[in-house]
Design goal:
Layout: E1 4-8, H1 23-41, E2 53-63, E3 74-83, E4 88-95, E5 103-115, E6 120-121, H2 126-133, H3 144-147
Antiparallel strand pairs: 1-3, 2-5, 3-4, 4-5, 5-6
C-alpha cells in the first residue's frame, strides 16, 4: 500500500496556553495533508479528475501524545481506507519524522466529492477510483479451495 507523505511545518501560533500544539490545529495539519494528497492524485494529463470540489462529512481524531513547537516539520502520512460510490475515507498518522514509530495523532476523514456548479454531491468516477485504489491497504488473498471443506 502506498502512503502519501506530507511534511507539515509547525507555526509558533499553533501553540496554546499549555505549551503544546492546540487540538484544533491538528485539523489544519490534516487539511493541508489531504489537499496536498488530493492534488497529487489528480492526473497531469489535463483530466478533470479531482478538479471539482469536495466536502468533509466526518472527522475522527485520537490524540496520542502532546506535540510541542519545534523547527522541524512533522510528517503526516495519508492513505485511503474505504472507497464508496460517493465518498472515500482517508486515514492519517501525524508522526515525529518519516519512518518514525512516534505517532502524535491518528485520524480519519470522510470526504464527499462535490459538484460545485450543481451544488450537490457527486459520484466518484472510475478514473478517480483507480487512482485512490493505489492507496488502499493490500487485502489478504483468500484461498477459496481451503474454504470448501
Amino acid at each position: 500500500m502506498a502512503r502519501h507523505i506530507y511534511h507539515c511545518p509547525l507555526r509558533w501560533s499553533d501553540m496554546d496556553a499549555f505549551g503544546h500544539v492546540n487540538n484544533v490545529v491538528f485539523l489544519r495539519y490534516l487539511e493541508e495533508a489531504r489537499i496536498d494528497f488530493m492534488f497529487r492524485l489528480r492526473p497531469a494529463d489535463g483530466s478533470p479528475s479531482f478538479s471539482g470540489g469536495s466536502v468533509v462529512a466526518r472527522h475522527e481524531i485520537d490524540y496520542l501524545r502532546p506535540l510541542v513547537h519545534r523547527h522541524e516539520p512533522v510528517v503526516v502520512e495519508s492513505w485511503v481506507t474505504r472507497i464508496r460510490s460517493a465518498s472515500l475515507t482517508i486515514a492519517y498518522e501525524v508522526k515525529e519524522a518519516e519512518g518514525s514509530d512516534l505517532v502524535y495523532v491518528r485520524a480519519s476523514t470522510v470526504v464527499v466529492p462535490y459538484d460545485l456548479a450543481a451544488g450537490r454531491p457527486r459520484r466518484i468516477t472510475p478514473e478517480e477510483k483507480a487512482h485512490l485504489q493505489r492507496y488502499l491497504p493490500e487485502q489478504p488473498t483468500v484461498d477459496e479451495d481451503a474454504l470448501v471443506g
